[in-house]
Amino acid sequence: MAEKEQEKNDSNINAEKQEKLKKQSEVDAKDEELKNEDPKTLRQKLSNKNQDYVFRLEKELQRQGSLSHEEAVAMTDGLLSEIVIAQRHGQPANGLYLASPKIKAEEMLHPEQKTVETPFWQRAVDGALLYLAIFVGLFGGVIALFETKQPQNSQMGILTLASVGILMGVFMVKYNDWVIPKNGQRIGLPKLLLSGLGIAVALFVWIWILSLPAIRVINPVLPGAVDIVIAAIAYGARYLFRQHYHITGSSFASRPQRK
What we know:
Elements: H1 2-35, H2 39-45, H3 48-65, H4 69-77, H5 80-88, H6 93-97, H7 101-109, E1 115-116, H8 120-146, H9 158-179, H10 189-210, H11 224-245, E2 248-249, E3 254-255, E4 257-258
Antiparallel strand pairs: 1-4, 2-3
């Protein structure tokens, strides 16, 4: 009886595997078919979001390359099959190319220039300085200046503001790496939620530790004007850092360097 049950289970497993292989084969066949489809037909299959991306891409090609409308359309025709294939798998054009239409047009017009992805540590420093300026300037400076009646010991100290801002900047850069698909794959939703929850818990614990009376001596509450000056210095340092390493675009999805 046990052997028959095992054979039945094995049969079901094999049937499931065959069904998955069949579906995957159908998907691959459809993708291969799309590669040979007429551009006019492919344009009709674009989602609204991808239609907008292609439209703006063609405008950028005309503007940056001084091309006619027909020339720009001919260039984007070569991208339509891969855009539609990615679309079928749930990935829009901006996620496929990891570039805005403006940046993608520049890459198409100057293919001889190699793109070098901005290293994680540079993006992490960039994000840390940005969040440092935001946290210290907003929560330590602006809010403190307007809440003059609030007792000083209820405000967050400079070490709390600075460390939380820096950690948030680094965490957001890493979170962006998790969200953006890599080679067509992205981190699973359960793992993403657990990671976000773990980061939130770690931040709350860190804030609690820094709020202990024993830590107050190295975590003073500074005047609002001083916090604003510190925020301005952090933002200025970020500007110089981005200029030095040629970082452009968002702190969390920075534009690749072109060499």
